[in-house]
């Protein structure tokens, strides 16, 4: 089959001496990605172009739409609960959602309020999950809706096996530190896009792993999820967490650490910190000085990426 050359992109990072070249070759239904990471290192794989389709229609989270979905769910639940003189009263649709229960028996009113509160939380969770969003509790900025990075990773597991296979072909599976280091260096050299305020942006700017590869750019959250996806495919049971720092995200992973590398301790493990953001070529166990205060004071949120059956 005749191959058509789409473009050749040269990425130059001012903080590193090496340059990574990307060549993309269209072959009808697939695109081949060929990365010249260094003079002696090449990474190549093919992805199905149709993988992008599922993300083209994804919308930014809109609070008023979520409120509307929750209100409708509560109205249906209230209609089923109201009997024998019990009555649920809601605030007008143009005002923030509030409700009260009137019943002859105080205990009955309390039970109905508890039932409605549970339904409210369930309706919100269902709406968020359907839109691939997650309610993050940030220790500094409070609660806010962000993309559900765990769901995006689970989707990407069925999409990025060719990427994982390319790393295995180059480096094998026996040296976890070598794989982690090479994967980190590759993700770091993909051009970086500034992270919009995570809590206030409602997911604007996030790129799922497949989209990040096709677009050849991504913010720190996007790059962290790409790193975690490929690493999970190579090491199915490896513990991997995403650490949400103020306006940044890094990875904490069960990778052996040296005495000079930074780790972070959790109740169930001590994990090596890894920052795949770039453009700075930080090595394993290195995180920028501007994030040390948050790390030391535990001013961050974290989530654990699910493992796979080995």
Measured on Cα atoms, how large is the radius of gyration? 23 Å
The total count of helices amounts to 9
Number of strands: 13
Shape: elongated
| CATH architecture heading of the largest domain | Roll
Structural class: alpha+beta
CATH topology of the largest domain: the name is: C8orf32 fold
Question: According to CATH, what is the class of the largest domain?
Answer: Alpha Beta
Strand content: 25-35%
Overall mean pLDDT stands at 87
Secondary-structure element order, N to C: EEEEHHEEHEEHHHHHEEEEHE
Number of domains: 2
| Neighbour order of strands in the largest sheet | 11-12-10-9-13
Q: Considering DSSP H and I runs of 4 or more, what fraction of the residues is helical?
A: 25-40%
Low-confidence stretches: 1-17
Give an account of the 3D structure.
By secondary structure, this protein is α+β, with helices and mostly antiparallel strands. The chain has 2 domains: 68 residues, 2-Layer Sandwich (Alpha-Beta Plaits); 161 residues, C8orf32 fold (Roll). The strands form 4 sheets. A 5-stranded antiparallel beta sheet has the order 11-12-10-9-13, with helices on one face. It has a 4-stranded antiparallel beta sheet with strand order 1-2-3-4. A two-stranded antiparallel sheet has the order 5-6. A hairpin with a 3-residue loop joins β7 and β8. α6 runs antiparallel to α8. It is elongated and about 80 Å long.
């Amino acid at each position: 089959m005749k191959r058509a050359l789409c473009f050749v992109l040269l990425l130059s990072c001012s903080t590193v001496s090496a340059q990574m070249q990307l060549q993309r070759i269209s072959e009808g239904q697939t695109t081949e990605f060929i990365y010249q990471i260094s003079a002696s290192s090449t990474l190549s794989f093919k992805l199905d172009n149709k993988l992008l389709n599922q993300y083209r229609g994804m919308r930014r989270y809109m609070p008023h739409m979520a409120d509307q979905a929750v209100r409708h769910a509560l109205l249906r639940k209230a209609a089923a609960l109201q009997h024998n003189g019990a009555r649920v009263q809601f605030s007008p649709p143009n005002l923030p959602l509030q409700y009260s229960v009137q019943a002859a028996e105080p205990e009955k009113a309390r039970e109905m309020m508890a039932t409605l509160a549970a339904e409210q939380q369930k309706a919100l969770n269902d709406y968020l999950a359907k839109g691939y969003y997650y309610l993050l509790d940030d220790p500094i900025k409070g609660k806010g809706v962000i993309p559900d990075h765990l769901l995006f990773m689970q989707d990407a597991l069925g999409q990025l096996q060719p990427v994982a296979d390319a790393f295995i072909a180059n480096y094998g599976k026996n040296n976890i530190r070598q794989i982690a280091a090479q994967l980190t260096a590759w993700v770091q050299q993909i051009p970086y896009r500034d992270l919009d305020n995570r809590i206030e942006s409602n997911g604007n700017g996030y790129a799922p792993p497949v989209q990040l590869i096709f677009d050849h750019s991504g913010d720190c959250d996007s790059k962290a999820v790409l790193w975690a996806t490929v690493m999970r495919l190579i090491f199915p049971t490896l513990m991997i967490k995403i650490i949400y720092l103020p306006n940044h995200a890094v990875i904490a992973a069960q990778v052996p650490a040296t005495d000079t590398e930074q780790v972070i301790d959790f109740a169930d493990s001590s994990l090596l910190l890894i920052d795949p953001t770039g453009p700075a070529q930080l090595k394993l166990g290195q995180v920028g000085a501007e994030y040390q205060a948050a790390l030391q004071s535990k001013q961050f949120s974290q989530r654990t990426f699910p493992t796979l059956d080995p």
